[in-house]
Amino acid sequence: RRRAIRGGVVLIDQSGSMGIERAALDRILEASPGCTVIGYSHAPGSEGVPNVWVIADRGRAVDSIPDGNLGNGVDGPALRFAARHRRNNDPLIWVSDGYVTDRFDSVRFNLTRECAELVASLGVHQVENLDAAHAALEAVARGRKLPTRGVGPIGRLLEAA
């Protein structure tokens, strides 16, 4: 017998100001067993250092969660990568404080605007922390559709549009 399991994509900023603990990952996977969890972070000024990784996919999770690389640096590419992992009409939840940076970890308005446009065009539901991501996945499980939403500077740009 087949049973539909809830999915979705949760993208997590793992820069110095953000991160993920095992208990939080377990709660995410309990709320949505079929979801894909992706982490990202960039080492400022680096090349050749992995900066996006799949932490869980379709019921399987890594044994040890990769540490972040201190900076953001790849917010836009990470959003695009996460969007490619969506199946059907699954929600895309982005856990971030809304501050995006370049490869040297400097805040750039053009990158913030680019990410705000991605949030709008992809229908991303951005939240501030993993507890809010868990609550969003539970709302989806109850049949609720998540609104497109931004936080921090991205949220302010979306509100102004």
Principal-axes shape call: globular
Give the strand content.
15-25%
Helix count from the secondary structure assignment: 5
Structural class category: alpha/beta
Using only CA atoms, what is the Rg? 15 Å
User: How far from one another are the termini?
Assistant: 47 Å
Description:
- The protein is an alpha/beta fold.
- It contains five helices and six strands; from the N terminus they run βαβββαβαβαα.
- The chain has helices at 22-31, 75-84, 109-122, 130-141, 152-160, and strands spanning 9-13, 36-40, 52-57, 60-61, 92-95, 125-127.
- The protein has a six-stranded mixed beta sheet, with helices on both faces.
- Strand 1 (9-13), helix 1 (22-31) and strand 2 form a beta-alpha-beta unit.
- Helix 1 (22-31) runs parallel beside helix 4.
- The longest helix is centred in the C-terminal third of the chain and has 14 residues, at 109-122.
Question: How is this fold's topology laid out?
Answer:
Elements: E1 9-13, H1 22-31, E2 36-40, E3 52-57, E4 60-61, H2 75-84, E5 92-95, H3 109-122, E6 125-127, H4 130-141, H5 152-160
Parallel strand pairs: 1-2, 1-5, 5-6
Antiparallel strand pairs: 2-3, 3-4
Helix pairs in contact: 1-4, 2-3, 3-5
Question: What are the main properties of this structure?
Answer:
single chain, 161 residues, 16% strand, 5 helices, alpha/beta, 34% helix, six-stranded mixed sheet
